[in-house]
């Protein structure tokens, strides 16, 4: 019986040794310790202007009316899901261009994200334009 008890005790010691936490490697001399302190915020976070909040609140009914007769995605990127789900703004979302429906395209969420991530390709195909670009005929 003594052999069985010794065997059990040996297994317990091995199990406890495996559970012990490993100590971190010793710190190199000469480096100051790093502190995990949060970054200081510089003032209040910037919010939307009162005018922009009004424009955005007016967009929902306009989006609904625009998307009512659009069932298919107009962008048709390689990741397209086919069904139009949202409005893509060709010239961004500035106050002067956000309400202009001639600069909107019905798109699926996948295409909208694709256009934002593939900037050069989107500009080449006409799905993204700079509102300040010389190539834009509407900028004078």
Give keywords.
140 residues; mainly alpha; two-stranded antiparallel sheet; 4 helices; 2 strands; 37% helix; 6% strand
Folded structure, characterized:
With 140 residues, this protein is mainly alpha-helical. The protein has a domain at 71-128. It is 37% helix and 6% strand. It is built from four helices and two strands. The chain has helices spanning 2-19, 50-67, 109-117, 119-125; strands at 86-89, 104-107. It has a two-stranded antiparallel ribbon. The longest helix is centred in the N-terminal third of the chain and has 18 residues, at 2-19. The mean pLDDT is 78.
What composes the largest sheet? 2 strands, antiparallel
Please tally the β strands and state the result. Answer: 2
Q: Note the run of SSEs as H and E.
A: HHEEHH
Structural class: mainly alpha
Q: Count helical runs.
A: 4
Strand order of the largest sheet: 1-2
Shape assignment:
elongated
Q: How do you describe this structure in short?
A:
This protein is mainly α and 140 residues long. It has four helices and two strands.
What's the layout of helices and strands?
Layout (H helix, E strand, L loop, with lengths): L1 H18 L30 H18 L18 E4 L14 E4 L1 H9 L1 H7 L15
Antiparallel strand pairs: 1-2
